[in-house]
Fold these 2 entries.
Entry 1:
Amino acid sequence: MSLNILMVEDNLSHQKITEYILKKIGIPFSLFVVRDGQMVLDYLYHKGPYSDTDKFPLPHIILLDLNLPKRDGREVLKIIKEDDNLKNIPIVVVSTSDREEDVNYANRLGVAGYISKSIGFDKLNLELFNILKNIKL
């Protein structure tokens, strides 16, 4: 079975690096990418262009950047975790922010992991692998 991954990332370079890491990890996956905080909510609530639930299934995991256009990732995280239909989807924050208040906020809301993009490619690869291998389908 394939892991449905929803990546919320507005930086194309960061998206490509994450895609490369995902392929390298070797877990079968389908990747869905949205570029801002409003798009992720539209995707999760099947609104607008994401209304086809067969084409845009609920993800098994969300990779969420915090610094997003339109709606901030912190706000998106709170909305998801307060929704009974979505709150059990594991969320991994993958962000340039390694501010203590962001890490604490994300952990308080129950994220599956918090990875700073500044840790370097090898550590990013290892951390993402360790989190993904524990996701139950």
Note: Residues 12-25 form the longest helix (14 residues).
Entry 2:
Amino acid sequence: EQRRCDKNMSLYEDLKWRGLIKDVAGEECELQKVLDGKPFSFYWGTDPTADSLHIGHYSSLCMAKRLANAGHHPVLLCGGATGRIGDPRPTAEREIISEEKVNSNIEGIRQQIKALVPSAELVDNYDWMKDYTFLNFLRDIGKYINVNYMLDKDIIRRRLENGITFAEFSYMLLQGYDFVHLYQEKNCIMQVAGSDQWGNITTGVDLIRKILDKPAYAFTMPLILDATGKKFGKSEGNALWLNKEKTAPYAIYQYLINSDDSKVLEYLKVFTFLSRQQIEEIYAQHQQAPEKRIAQKTLAWEIVKDLHGQAEADNAVQVSEKLFAGNFEGLSVRDILTGMKGVPTFKYENELSLVDLLVNNKIASSKREAREFIKGNAISINGKIFNDETQIITKDLALENKVIIIRRGKKKYFLAEV
């Protein structure tokens, strides 16, 4: 019997419909048999480059949950060993992270994975690499992979012109060996990752075939981009962290509710656990009245609920609706600061004219632009429109003597802390 994630589709069919299978190691028909067959163990890995995962990791976490919900066993690897080297980036070498920071980051990520994928078994590749000598690694692993094979990998080719260190060059072998180790010790027969890991994944598959003489399976998910072609979840160079102390649930909600119409159907498929029927019904409603942003609101609520619970999702909706309307009634300063975490903030110490306030704090790029905003009724303070450019903004305006909320247009907020 095929393993099903909803009443109408097998797991494989569901993943294909959601657009979650990009590259496949081997024949796709074999992958389908494994996905829809008996329970198996699979793994997904990440390096501890920070003490929190970010929204860019969320599609991989969702994939782990989908396979787990279908009865398969997730092994989630946090790379204490590979994190000490760094996966090659397309343009430059990653900075080396101290061992203390690596360990601290691993603990933060472990807590998040346990909360988001409760059935996952958590492992750290430092545990099996720390006592593996360099000579033994070269003898056991290095002899099976040809240098020309490594040079042909896309991520390596792109770095050859500017140069790549031996440490980064070796990363592929380390990740490939992770797959071998987990295949032997945890019976992980499959690896799942983002498309940027294709070269590392296939190296692991090849090593298992050469060393163990056994078949292994792997597939990648497509890279999720926003409407401008940037990586999903990158906002002005700042990641949206899954740790709510680093990024408030409201900030994630607000980012998602502003998703472009051209991408929202894709995001609903990739990032939510709604069924095909539910998603198609929601998108049909969205197409009939796109101005209501039904699809975006559903997307934002579902993701925040999955990450932080329904109470946080409901609160994000309430805060979002009130802040969007410029209505701060019932919201304490604590609510506002929590809901608007990540909003540009500055210290306000001197009384300034409205024009100077806008220019000095980069709310407007020039006095002329500031006056245009003001005359166009585009500037409001604490929910009230201010259209007098000579108005002096005093500390008396601060809510609870703590903060002044400035809004430019309908969506751009700034906080002045008194």
Note: The chain has a mean pLDDT of 90.
